[in-house]
Design brief:
Layout (H helix, E strand, L loop, with lengths): L1 H9 L11 H7 L3 H6 L3 H14 L6 H29 L11 H15 L1
Helix pairs in contact: 2-5, 4-5
């Protein structure tokens, strides 16, 4: 992937084998393990995607139609993944996860007395 990033820095819509921008789509679609192992590349990748998206208006119509949807879709999926990762690692955890053992067991005790 680092070679892709070098090439994308020169041209964020660089073409691999299929269409302009397919290298960026491939990078944005990287597996979770990659992004967790290389957190320093997140900002770089986000900047590359935003730069590519800013180039859409300057592209000829045919190329724009081919490139816009896959790049935008991949960028949205990437952003959603990053958002989920941030939520998963946020501290403190969500309130419902921080209930003490006593609070959980009390709820069970109350429920068992209601059934009687």
């Amino acid at each position: 992937m680092p070679l892709d990033i070098e090439q994308l820095q020169e041209d964020p819509l660089a073409e691999g084998a299929y269409f302009p921008g397919d290298l960026l789509v491939s990078l944005l679609g990287g597996k979770a393990e990659f992004w967790l192992a290389k957190p320093g590349l997140r900002d770089q990748t986000r900047a590359l995607a935003e730069r590519a998206i800013s180039l859409f208006p300057t592209m000829p119509d045919i190329a724009s139609q081919t490139v816009t949807k896959p790049v935008t879709r991949a960028y949205r999926a990437y952003e959603e993944f990053q958002r989920r990762q941030a939520e998963a690692t946020a501290w403190p955890p969500q309130r419902h996860r921080t209930q003490s053992w006593h609070q959980r067991s009390r709820r069970v005790d109350i429920a068992s007395t209601v059934d009687r």
